[in-house]
Design brief:
Helices cover about 20% and strands about 40% of the residues. It contains 2 helices and 11 strands. Strand 5 and strand 6 form a beta hairpin.
Amino acid sequence: MIRELVTKLSGVLARNTHSIRRKCDAPVRVSFEPVRTTGNLHTTIEGLSISGEAADVSKTGIAFIVSAIRVKEFYLVGQDRKLIVELDLPGRKIKMKVIGRRYEKVGIHVSSERYLIGAEIVEMEESHRQAYDRFLRFGSNRSQSTSPSLEMGID
């Protein structure tokens, strides 16, 4: 009896402490936020990007699959490096700043080697956040239009 109660309680706590994930296979483009150093000097990593696809999304994070863990000498995960992710959802592109938290190699063979990257969302414009939350809630099944449609029942 007590064991069942503890199991139910831990299940409720687990559901409330983690964001619900939604599977997603939308294209993503990942680039680096420009890094500021001392004075007016800054590292030139602008223009470096890699394309991939989202694996799943949640309110607080995103997981995406890319073909490499680094672009040139810049790693996608580590050193709290901010990345700019453009997620191409149906009807709108969502732009967010994330920090890569973990990665793992996926793929069966060396020729198809890819990396799954889990990233925490740290910044997003309000209009992008609203569209992203709408996608999380309704998926791609709900149209982006807010005006009602008129259907004619003519056979």
